[in-house]
Amino acid sequence: MATVAGVPLGAWLGQLSGWRGPFWVLAAPSAGAAAVIGRYIPADERREAPSLRAEFAVLRDVRIWLILSAMTLLMGSVADLWNRFDVKPHAPDPKTFHHPDVGDLHLGYEPMSLEQSQKQRFVVFFAEPGSCDHDKLVLLDAEHDELGLEVEEGRLSRRRSAD
């Protein structure tokens, strides 16, 4: 029932109120359910801990072996589907750029499709925090700001004074 009704309802509510909305809607009934469950749970009784022999005695039950076999087959088929299709995240090799002031920059990137265009992509380049490439980018950013430069329409130009 939760999958059939809850997922579409949660998606609709998420579109109306943002992605946090469905979580807040579920928080109130969950808090109420926790209070009711806490009210009716019997007081903790002191019992002896079961022995290891008693725990393994469960394995004599045929129903347990049927459940374990079914779960093994199910998980095996899921693993087979996972391996058969390329569902792993793609991590493209870093690109190398040469800058005359700082030398080679090895940057990772993430291409993203644009909704309105099948042919165009938005690409974000990044350096791993703490790496020497990250330090080079920080240095270039500081130099860019000190020189009073700004990027307009894809071209580097001098920042206009506000007089």
UniProtKB/TrEMBL annotation:
**Gene3D superfamilies found in the cross-reference section:** MFS general substrate transporter like domains (1.20.1250.20)
The subcellular localization recorded is:
Cell membrane
Q: Is this entry keyworded Transmembrane?
A: yes
Domain (MmyB-like transcription regulator ligand binding): give its ranges: 76-140
Q: What would be one Pfam family of this protein?
A: MLTR_LBD
| Keywords, ordered alphabetically | Cell membrane, Membrane, Transmembrane, Transmembrane helix
Q: Does the keyword Transferase apply?
A: no
User: What topology does the record note for this protein and the membrane?
Assistant: Multi-pass membrane protein
What protein name is recorded for this chain?
A: MmyB-like transcription regulator ligand binding domain-containing protein
Taxonomy, top ranks, is: Bacteria, Bacillati, Actinomycetota, Actinomycetes, Kitasatosporales
